[in-house]
């Protein structure tokens, strides 16, 4: 098992940042690495229960991920399970993600804590994906 932790500071209030990481309409604006869009989803981390998203690249390849929102604690944190689907729509190994938001002197900090990844290669791939997604969020929260 491997874990991944990323931290980014944003010049917005914790309440505003929490909305960006929990509200479905806001999530869709930055969800997924650069170059991908989300044609199908049930993406809403403001409520407990199931969620999914299908990300698609420019060549039409689709990548489905799903899970359950396990906790919500506005404006501090939201947690959810995460599992990629294969070509037959079968879920793979499940990991857990927590978005934590805290006030800073200049706004707020987001910590993305992705735990229980299957191995170091998976952690590296998720690091690239989250880093790319967070660049999109940074552009929105200026």
From TrEMBL:
SUPFAM superfamilies: Bet v1-like
Chain coiled-coil ranges: none
Residue span(s) of domain Activator of Hsp90 ATPase homologue 1/2-like C-terminal: 12-140
Family the UniProt entry places it in: Belongs to the AHA1 family.
A Pfam family per the record: AHSA1
InterPro entries linked: ASHA1/2-like_C (IPR013538), START-like_dom_sf (IPR023393)
Domain of life: Bacteria
Protein name, entry field: Uncharacterized conserved protein YndB, AHSA1/START domain
